[in-house]
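Hey, can you fold this one?
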Amino acid sequence: MNKRGVTITLSIFLMVGLVGCDSKNTVKSTTDTKTATTAKAIPKIIPKPVPKVEVETVVKNPDFRKVKWGMTREEVKKTEKTPIMATTDDAIMYKDRVCGISDVQLAYQFNSEGKFTEGLFMFTGRHSNPNDYIDDYESIKKQLIAKYGEPSTYDNGGIWKDSLYKDSPQERGMAVITGGLIYGTKWNLPNTIITLFLQGDKFEPSMDVIYESKTVKKDATKSGL
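Sure. Predicted structure:
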């Protein structure tokens, strides 16, 4: 082979080598780019915090609503789902709907040892017709009889303190809110005394259901809620 032929052959060999190197570098560069793009495309997953679930306390054979006599304030709070309306040193109050009647204040009272001793439903709704208070009373009494049985003491149509409206049946509601007529019914259960009463004074009615413990004593200085 002459000198010119050697020169041409060497030139071709060098060109092929350079092309091969460029091809490998191009493939590697493309692969690296795809890998980087893929890595950026994967979103970062942030775990969501698990919400805290309040476990409702379930009490067997409760004495008042869902609680038993002698329970602590904290134990009582765990049984109620409605927001607390007010608190004092010896009581917790809520607002609820009871016996199908709205505007009812619910109170739990505790003795000096912090033990639950009394429960109270205060029916604070107002009617334009005073006779509707008596209807509410009779409705609640009927529901309490269905739940606890016959009462130990009946009101027998009410107790008259003032005979002004005694001969006017249509004015019995007026007799109640002016303090002339009082209704009351009592249940004496193994662990509890329940008293339902309706009375009034100066055109202001007052209807309550009081649950009193027979197993846990209230403080001697307290005469009820």
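The radius of gyration is 41 Å. Let me know if you want another pass with a different chain boundary.
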